[in-house]
Amino acid sequence: MEDNGSSVPQRVPLWVYTFLILPPLFWAGNSVLARGVAQLIPPVTMSFWRWFLALMILLPFTWRQTLRDWPLIRRHWVIITLLGIFGIASFNTLLYTAAHTTTAINIALMQSVMPVVIVLISFVIYRERISRWQLCAIALCTIGAGYIVIRGDWQRLVHLRLVSGDMLMLLAVVLYALYSVLLRQRPAIHQLSFLTASFTVGVVLLLPLYLWEMGHVPPLELTRPIVISLAYLALLPSIASYLFWNRGVHEIGANRAGLFINLIPLFASVLAVLFLGERFSAYHVVGIAFIASGLLWFNLLAQRCGAAEKK
User: Fold this and answer.
1) What is the number of other CB atoms lying within 10 angstroms of the CB of residue 187?
2) Tens-digit pLDDT profile for the chain (311 aa)?
3) Alpha-carbon distances of 282 from 143, 191, 288, rounded to whole Å
4) Cβ neighbours around 211 below 10 Å, total
5) How far apart, in whole angstroms, are the C-alpha atoms of residue 192 and residue 9?
6) Burial 70-89 (b: 16+ CB within 10 A, else e)
7) Total-model pTM
């Protein structure tokens, strides 16, 4: 399997960027939905059923390929288990739990720093360096995402209060950054086999927590909004997003791909305009300009570095 971190292709096909843009869109829907149904679905229950349903949808199409890949899956069970813990079982469970005790602004702000965390972890684990200009590009993206989150009002940062949910969200960000960085070590198996294996790890780990939570909360009522919400979570933020994200990270590396996470606040704002009746404001334009400039700058610098290395 091609190393997805150290080698940078000189030219990246357009479909790779499409694959990296769609997951933030679906994950933005996940964040908006999580806030909307927080009082209807307990956090571990939401996470368990999201991944269980996603696994049940996958299995009829992937079980044969997964059996063919089983020798490699068994040989690389450690890294698959770690990826299942960091990217499947932990991140969204922590996010859903944090939504009960912290604000949507805090959750979005924490996610906006994930690209920086990815770069730091890449350096610590693999000594992967980036230039000061690429750091500036990351800063532009982070500022743009943060500006959208605070709605262009810096006073919101002054009155920002940290609670236990913020610590959970910070932990979630670190774990998903680890997932993105460690994807380079995934075994050379079919994408669908990898998803099936990692989703299975997540479901198995969440099952005892789900059973514990069932004993402490009222039983889940399968109303129409809840069924639709769980179906959305299983199909788009889970199966589709992880297929696209994993392939995108494989193609251009975690550092470059991580910048696209800054699109989550932007897409969440757009979804709020479309579905919640919010207005498109000047701060959206400013945030979009910063994020787009940072993404373009970082990728142009990465392509230039890749071209220089080949000479």
Assistant:
1) 18
2) 333 444 444 567 888 889 999 998 998 888 777 767 767 888 899 999 999 999 999 999 999 999 999 999 999 999 999 999 999 999 989 988 887 777 666 676 677 778 888 888 998 898 887 777 778 888 887 787 777 767 777 777 776 666 677 788 889 989 999 999 999 999 999 999 999 999 999 999 999 999 999 988 888 888 888 888 889 999 999 999 999 999 998 888 887 888 888 788 778 777 777 776 667 777 778 877 888 787 777 767 666 655 454 44
3) 15, 41, 10
4) 11
5) 24
6) eebbeebeeebbbbbbbbbb
7) 0.81
What are the domain boundaries of the chain?
14-310
Length of the chain: 311
Backbone angles phi, psi at 112, to 5 degrees: -70, -20
In Å, how far from its chain's centre is CA 215? 30
From first CA to last CA, the distance across the chain in angstroms is 24
What dihedral angle (degrees, nearest 10) is formed by the CA atoms of 17, 61, 77, 235? Answer: 50
CA distance 124 to 183: 15
Helix 132-149 and helix 282-310, axial crossing angle in degrees, nearest 10: 160
**Chain centre to alpha carbon of residue 11:** 24
Going from the C-alpha of 49 to that of each of 8, 90, 231, the distances in angstroms are 37, 14, 9
Give the span between the Cα atoms of 208 and 226, in whole angstroms.
22
Structure tokens given for 179: 């997932």
The DSSP code for 184 is G
Q: Buried b vs exposed e over 16-25: b needs ≥16 C-beta within 10 Å?
A: bbebbebbbb
- Three-state DSSP class for residue 140: helix
Do 73 and 169 meet the contact criterion of CB atoms below 8 Å apart?
Answer: no
Amino acid letter for position 82:
L
